[in-house]
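Hi Y.,

Following your request, here is the sequence exactly as I used it, all 172 residues.
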Amino acid sequence: MDGQLTELLTSYGEIGGIWFDGHWDKKDADWRLGKTYNLIQYLVKAAGYNSNFLLNVGPMPDGKIQPEFVNTLKEIGKWMEKNGETIYGTRGGPVSPRTWGVTTHKANKVFVHILNAEDLNLLIPDFGKKVKNITQFNTGVKLKFKQDAFGIAVSLPKEIIDETDTILVIEI
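Below is the corresponding structure, written out as tokens. Let me know if you'd prefer a different format.
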């Protein structure tokens, strides 16, 4: 399945969206949807790619939400309550998606979503704006950085790394 998804999403031009449907007929199959969706990371990537996110959760015939979806909705809601500012009302950021994550932006802020911290030094490509400061989103802790013609080098303290999404705020 992963190979087929890769082919479909990379070999046929621009993709406007993709919809997964139909695992209902083989409930016991190992669909590995967690790997495919990475539920919160999938939401963040959608924002960084300047696209919309549709969580395919529909009610049962009696109007109730399936129990297996309730946890997903609660987790996403909890994460958005804390970090929604970096997603709601933003557009895809000035830096194209990278192996380490994505960026979103709103007004004079660029939100850097580090979804895959490769090490404790992050090089953000130059995007043509002078950086005033860089902070960790949730704590406001200022981070050390150096900006030059190659980009912005940011030192990441080990204790701020979040396995799901380490969020930085670049004020421009």
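The mean pLDDT is 88.

Thanks again,
Q.
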